[in-house]
Amino acid sequence: MASVPALSASIQQRVSAALAAAVPSAADADPLLRRSDRADFQANGVLGLAKRNKANPRELAAEVVAHLPEDDVLAGVEVSGPGFLNLTVSDAAILRTLAARAEDDRLGVPTAADPRRMIIEYSQPNVAKEMHVGHLRSTVIGDALVRIMEFRGETVIRRNHVGDWGTQFGMLVQYLIEHPHELDHESGETGGAAMSRLDRLYKASRAVFDSDAEFKERARRRVVDLQAGDPETTELWQKIVDESKIYFNAVYDRLDVLLTDDDLVGESAYNDDLPVLAQELEDSGVAVRSNGALCVFFDDVVGPDGQPVPLIVRKADGGFGYAATDLAAIRNRVGVLKADTLLYLVDSRQALHFKMVFETARRAGWLPEGAAHHLPFGTVLGKDGKPFKTRSGETVRLMDLLAEAVDRARAVVEEKSSGLGAEEVGERSVQVGIGAVKYADLSTSRARDYVFDLDRMVSLNGDTSVYLQYAYARIRSILRRAEGRTPKAHPQLELAPAERALGLHLDELAATLDGVAETYEPHKLASYLYGLASAYTTFYDQCPVLKAPTPEMVENRLFLCDLTARTLNRGMGLLGIRTPEQL
Ligand code: ARG
Question: Where is each Arginyl tRNA synthetase N-terminal domain found (predicted)?
């Protein structure tokens, strides 16, 4: 494991040092280095510095140039316009840096200097209910963040905070007591069958609940039994949870995400902590009684009528709700699990809930300032621009949706690849179809809504996973055909513009991942990979690889191919997307 400094970082360092040498009082001035079309990089920082020092910017720029070290990293420096620096990196420096990356299993990406201990909470479906596209987003984005953070060397604890608690379980359990065979089934349950059974149970119990006042009362008493840990009630509740787990795990398996039963810590897990927590909040004065309920108030949270809207810790009837559970989870995650960073992948409609929960936990002394982040995401829309629903207006069943994506992908795979066996076609179709769904989600910036459009998602053109998978497979095929000629960097060679562009892009993986980690936005990695595949396509169009003029050039281009393939493979892997060897 050897981390390799990026060329942009080396140049940044050189220009900073030259700036400091030219203007000693500006030792920490930012050279404002950017990638540029005119040269490889442009530094715009001289301008502002000249302004502050009332100096002539062009003269100052010339002075900075004079202080740049004479080595073979920079091939050219020019002062342009009112005092920009255009910097060109030498071909040799590009190839040497890339060769060092190729030596390293991590492609020279460093691990975090000061690793954090983070909880990433994601997926969070509700027991006895179908997962929907909102859970899809949380699951896919959360899983990519887990992979990226772990690759950076952070300690990550996954949490799947499933909704397995609350009044509806009184209804479900009571119904099961009165209809004992409702959940019986043969062994070898599939996820879909488990979900259908739960769905029936839910609908049937709901119907009785809504029509039969006496059942409603029995269901209400059943909630009390459940919260008190009554054995018969708990056993039936567990049966419902277990049945749901079969379904969740089938979805996770299909989605190819990391979540396992060990990550599943539902709302119920915090039940015993709730009375203690409420007492603490009341004793410390963070929460106060209001109309019988235990509440926390905020100056800046008021309803449409101007009245303050509190966070309700305990309802007037003594029951605890969603918010109390979240407070208990924070206490556990910081106090027991010793996490320093808490991330919550939950849709943006819950922003106010998290704002109030975090602020309450902070006031109570359970949560350090700035340690918790709600990472909201937008809504998945149908082609009509409205929240994605079936034609009859119901929420779309996630399993059906994924099955359809795999079906569409099958058509693409069959068209693209001749001579694949049925089993391979099946496997590829899953990798392409699931990859398409995940990528469409991950390549959209988190906060934005996006349209669920399978036609676009499985297209070979444009910013899709299929395009990236295809680029990867094409490179692998070239490498297979290279027969005896091995990828090797030859730093003495002169590079064509498309080779330079590809090389400089390859060098930016670590900086991209830093950006993702800073804002928790995996779409930055997706767009980096799309840029990489595009740079590769240009290179491939302009630079023959196996038919390059000299053996050194063949090896050097194979080297660029190989490093591109490895970078694509690594990057897609960090998004949780497979890269088949052949498409
Ligand atoms: N189960 C909830 C839902 O489906 C999401 C839970 C979000 N996480 C949390 N800690 N409150 O809407």
Answer: 9-89
HSE at residue 5, side-chain half, CA atoms within 13 A, is: 10
Q: What percentage of residues in the chain have a pLDDT greater than 70?
A: 99
What is residue 430's predicted lDDT score, i.e. its pLDDT? 97
Burial class for 420, CB neighbours closer than 10 Å (0-12, 13-18, 19+): middle
| Per-residue pLDDT tens digits for 22-35 | 888 877 888 999 99
Residue of 346, 347, 354, 398 best suited for mutating to test ligand 1, as the one with most atoms within 8 Å of CB: 346
Q: Work out the number of other CB atoms within 10 angstroms of the CB of residue 103.
A: 11
> Which is it for the CA torsion 49, 51, 52, 57, positive or negative?
positive
Ligand 1 centroid to residue 310 C-alpha, Å:
19
Tens digits of per-residue pLDDT, 266-307? 999 999 999 999 999 999 999 999 999 999 999 998 888 888
CA–centroid distance, residue 186 to ligand 1 (Å): 31
In one-letter notation, the amino acid at residue 179 is H
3-state secondary structure of 339: coil
Cα 346 to middle of ligand 1, angstroms: 7
Alpha-carbon Rg for the chain in angstroms: 29
Which residues, 6+ apart, have CB-to-CB distance to 532 below 8 Å? 502, 505, 506, 564, 567, 568, 571
Q: Which fold has domain 266-375?
A: Rossmann fold (3.40.50)
Pocket of ligand 1 (CB under 6 A): 121, 124, 126, 161, 163, 326, 344, 346
ipTM at complex level: 0.98
Domain 7-89, CATH: 3.30.1360.70
Average pLDDT of the chain is 94
Pairing of strands 155-159, 311-314: unpaired
Instruction: Report which secondary-structure segment, H or E, holds 117.
Output: strand 117-121
- Per-residue pLDDT tens over the stretch 149-199: 999 999 999 999 999 998 899 999 999 999 988 877 766 678 888 888 898
User: What is the 282 CA–ligand 1 centroid distance (Å)?
Assistant: 25
Query: Could you tell me the CA-to-CA distances from 156 to 135, 252, 308, 343, 534 in Å, in that order?
Result: 20, 19, 37, 10, 32
Structure tokens at 153: 């060397």
Whether residue 377 contacts residue 138, with contact meaning beta carbons closer than 8 Å, is answered with yes
DSSP tally for the chain: helices H, then strands E: 20, 13
57-67 and 45-52 helices, crossing angle to 10°:
120
pTM (2 d.p.): 0.95
Tell me which residue of 139, 164, 122 sits closest to 322, measured CA to CA: 164
Please tell me the predicted confidence (pLDDT) of residue 188.
Answer: 67
In the chain, where the domains are located? 7-89, 266-375
CA of 348 to the centre of ligand 1 (A): 11
